[in-house]
Amino acid sequence: MAHISTEDNLFTIINLGTVLPENLDQVMTVIPDMVRAMRRMPGFVSANVHTSDDRTRFVVYAQWESEGHFSAMRQEPALTAHFGRIRDLVTQFTPLTCAVGYSRD
């Protein structure tokens, strides 16, 4: 589960995806499969997905212990097919690396 704190110093990536509404269900099948593979990788902390009410956008919020762990995951051959499936389903994909600026429970 995500723990959002300015004190954790985790590497955070937020992926913003745009998708045709009829493709969202497929995206929401691929992402959990991808996360199951990521969970076994060193440095993985959490991943969460939010979908827009109009089914045209989704947000993936992922945390890693470091940027190095994230970069190593991106090179993992077992995940390459998942990345390709996502690229085939989305019309736009924007990754944002972030630091937590503020968090309140």
UniProtKB/TrEMBL annotation:
What Gene Ontology molecular-function terms does this entry list? monooxygenase activity
Q: Which SUPFAM superfamilies has this protein been placed in? A: Dimeric alpha+beta barrel
Q: What is this protein called?
A: Quinol monooxygenase YgiN
Q: Which residues form the ABM domain?
A: 11-100
Alphabetized, the UniProt keywords read: Monooxygenase, Oxidoreductase
Species source reads Streptomyces iranensis
